[in-house]
Amino acid sequence: LMKAFRDSEMTLVVHDRLSDDSPPDAVLSLATRFHEAGCDAIIVLGQGGVVHQAKALRLWVERSERDAAAPERDGAPNAASAAADVPSSSEEVTSDEGGASKVEGDAPQDQMDLPDPAALAGAHRIALFWLPTGPGEGDELGGHLRFGGHSIRHPRLRPQLACIDKRLLEPGDPDQLLNNVLVALVNAVEVCLARGDNPFAATYAEAALGAIGQTLTPEGLEARPATIQLALTNASVWADCARDMAPLGLAHRLGRYLSEHVDRGAGICMALCLPAVVDAVLARTPRLAAELLYLLGDAELYSLTRPELRRARCVNLLREGWQTLSDNWPDDLPRGI
Fold it and tell me: Is residue 290 within 8 Å of 310, Cβ to Cβ?
């Protein structure tokens, strides 16, 4: 990445001292550095917490640029600035593009206020580019921000571009890799079940399921580690795109909640919840069983399964897959909730 910038006429300012749990003030201080260096875009290399920190940094930069363009007069507070913060008691802020924010829940009172994306409508947008180094946590590419005790959803938070380059991929921790792939799997399945009005969501979800299904097989796992990493990173990004275009699924919500109370990753908790959620959804909407069975299995399994047995076959495929994974994974995995 640095070599590419050396070959151009652009200046690259590198900051490599952030971690997944960096305090908000460490990220806020980068907004000052951003302006002092005359930067006009953000490139984030990695996944997980550092991507959310880059999203938060962009909000702070965009707010400061907006306020600088409309300075306060006569000592009176700038009206836009006064409305630009997410209150420190906010836990969930959701909004459609350009709409007002919805604030729910509670967050730590001692955290810095984040600018409200909805209040920045019309402000100059700073370009944010994401270069993953492996499968993400399932919410980097979408309009979702988890940072400093806040959880915010707004279309303005989406990076403009994600570029997957196999030269940037790292082996990483196997347990984290498994957790992130399971997040992608759950998100893709739940998007297929939602079957909303956005055809692109279903396309991304189906592509993610195909890549995961082809990779997490005895034959697929015999491929070169770099090939496996590339396939699963693509699947993770595709599932992230799909999830951002559809309602947040119940297994995702339940798994995220459980992971806050047990010593397990969110992806593992989501995967444990998924069979029960799928069973409940297919009981209410049996027609979805045919589509899901075709995606989870193959054409032969689909054609050999009687219509009234497709729901049970879908649920059993998920449970059998988890059982196989538990039997072959080197570390102990829970058998159930």
Answer: yes
Q: How many CB atoms lie within 10 A of CB 192?
A: 24
Q: What angle do CA 85, 90, 92 make, to 5 degrees?
A: 110
3-state SS assignment for residue 292: helix
Taken as a whole, the chain contains a residue count of 337
Paired sense of beta strands 161-162 and 127-131, if any: parallel
Buried b (16+ CB within 10 A) or exposed e, 102-113: ebeeebeeebbe
Q: How many CA atoms lie within 13 A of 266 on its CB side?
A: 18
User: Helix and strand tally (H, E) in the chain?
Assistant: 12, 9
Backbone angles phi, psi at 194, to 5 degrees: -65, -40
Residue 90's pLDDT band, with cuts at 50, 70 and 90, is very low
Short-list 53, 72, 34, 59, CA closest to 121: 59
CA 144 to chain centre: 7
Closest CA to 208 of 237, 179, 182, 246: 237
Task: Check if the beta carbon of residue 265 is closer than 8 Å to that of residue 259.
Answer: yes
**Residue carrying structure tokens 């305090």:** 23
- Is 0.85 topped by the overall pTM? no
Residue 266, both tokens: 């969110």
Looking at residue 246, the DSSP 8-state letter turns out to be S
The two tokens of residue 142 are: 């979408």
Residue labelled with tokens 């600018």: 115
* Contact of 214 with 220, CB cutoff 8 Å: yes
- Separation between Cα atoms, residue 103 and residue 100, nearest integer Å: 10
Contact 204, 162 (CB under 8 A): no
Q: How confident is the model at residue 73 (pLDDT cuts 50, 70, 90)?
A: very low
Question: Could you give the strand order of the β-sheet that contains 102-104, starting from the edge strand earlier in sequence?
Answer: 102-104, 92-94, 150-153, 144-147
62 exposure class (CB count in 10 Å sphere: 0-12, 13-18, 19+): buried
Mean pLDDT over the full length of the chain: 83
The rounded distance, in Å, linking the Cα atoms of 320 and 322 is: 5
